[in-house]
UniProtKB/TrEMBL annotation:
This is Acetylglutamate kinase. Pathway: Amino-acid biosynthesis; L-arginine biosynthesis; N(2)-acetyl-L-ornithine from L-glutamate: step 2/4. HAMAP family: ArgB (MF_00082). One of its GO terms (molecular function) is acetylglutamate kinase activity. Pfam families: AA_kinase. Catalyzes the ATP-dependent phosphorylation of N-acetyl-L-glutamate. One of its GO terms (biological process) is L-arginine biosynthetic process via ornithine. Belongs to the acetylglutamate kinase family. ArgB subfamily. Residues 25-260 form the Aspartate/glutamate/uridylate kinase domain. Substrate binds at G64, G65, R86, N181. Keywords: Amino-acid biosynthesis, Arginine biosynthesis, ATP-binding, Cytoplasm, Kinase, Nucleotide-binding, Transferase. The record marks K29, K241 as: Transition state stabilizer.
Length: 283
């Protein structure tokens, strides 16, 4: 058991990190793969509440790919992925919006609320936050890219002392358009850049970026990351994730981390300790 002085030391160890990141915006991409158990979800909420209470400005962008795939299967609707991105028919788009905006977004908001932090859930359709455009309509349908961001609604939520919780769906300027399904990793990086975030963290279901021997790579430059994509070491869902890290870094975010959302309190370990966890990508 820890002695009382050990407890104090743990708190003091966190002090430089609290000073460094206090008042800074930190975008946390909470992937569907890291939302697997009720216990992990609770711990994630506690981590966000603590970061918020010590003065940081966490912004959550969530995924939910696994839940979307499960509901589509339950409904007997086929779904396919190309390079880690879902092909989104009009029918799939309805389910994507139900799961992301209707279910997961509100679940995260309630969790944060239950732990004592005011949270406001929106999708990119709210307040004209994200405007999308087709990635490649013929091959991907309503899967989109972000064309434009108006950060005002999120800045207002932060100013109001709440944590923004964002579902990665973009609106359209065309009347009656169903909107766009945006890969949550790519949404997180664009949002991090537009909001001048200091850091972006991606919580997922692997220890970080793994090499061909399945060992964790703790630090990567952009060039090294591109090389791992080119030689096929990085595949599937990790492709949009590292693309998102690179986009965030090129847009001025100082560090991008890919960390294991299955590890207890991985967010606090990464942000408030010197040991860090997962893969850190920087310029
Ligand atoms: N080099 C790699 N290192 C780690 N994971 C990889 C790598 N290449 C492919 N992957 C895959 O990427 C997955 C993470 O992406 P994804 O399933 O989309 O997660 P999330 O729902 O968190 O966005 C991992 O579970 C793993 O199967
Ligand atoms: C275009 C595209 O692929 N959109 C994703 C959106 C959710 C997501 O990105 O969820 P994860 O972060 O849990 O993978 C999808 O439909 O699954």
């Amino acid at each position: 058991m820890k002695s009382k002085i050990d407890v104090v030391k743990t708190l003091l160890d966190a002090l430089p990190f609290i000073k460094k990141f206090s008042n800074e915006k930190i975008v946390v991409k909470y992937g569907g793969a890291a939302q697997t158990s009720a216990e992990l979800k609770e711990q994630f909420a506690q981590d966000i509440v603590l970061l918020h209470l010590v003065g940081m400005k966490p912004i959550i962008v969530h995924g939910g790919g696994k839940s979307i795939t499960t509901l589509l299967a339950d409904l007997g609707v086929d779904t396919t992925f190309v390079d880690g991105q879902r092909v989104t028919t009009k029918e799939v788009m309805r389910i994507v919006e139900m799961v992301l905006s209707g279910e997961i977004n509100k679940e995260i908001v309630s969790l944060l609320d239950n732990h004592g932090t005011k949270a406001i859930g929106i999708s990119g359709k709210d307040g004209g936050f994200l405007k999308g455009m087709p990635k490649d309509f013929d091959n991907f349908g309503y899967t989109g890219l972000i064309e434009d961001i108006d950060p005002e609604i999120v800045d207002n939520i932060i100013e109001d002392g709440a944590v923004p919780v964002i579902a990665p769906i973009a609106g359209s300027n065309i009347i009656g358009h169903p909107g766009f399904n945006i890969n949550a990793d790519l949404a997180a990086s664009r949002i991090a850049v537009a909001l001048n975030a200091r850091k972006v963290l991606f919580l997922t279901d692997t220890p970080g970026v793994l090499n061909k021997e399945m060992k964790l790579i703790t630090n990567l430059s952009i060039e090294q990351t591109e090389a791992l994509k080119d030689d096929g070491t990085i595949q599937g869902g990790m492709v949009p994730k590292v693309d998102a890290c690179i986009e965030a870094l090129r847009g001025g975010v100082k560090k991008a981390h890919i960390i294991d959302g299955r590890v207890e309190h991985s967010l606090l370990l990464e942000i408030l300790t010197s040991s860090g966890v997962g893969t850190c990508i920087e310029l």
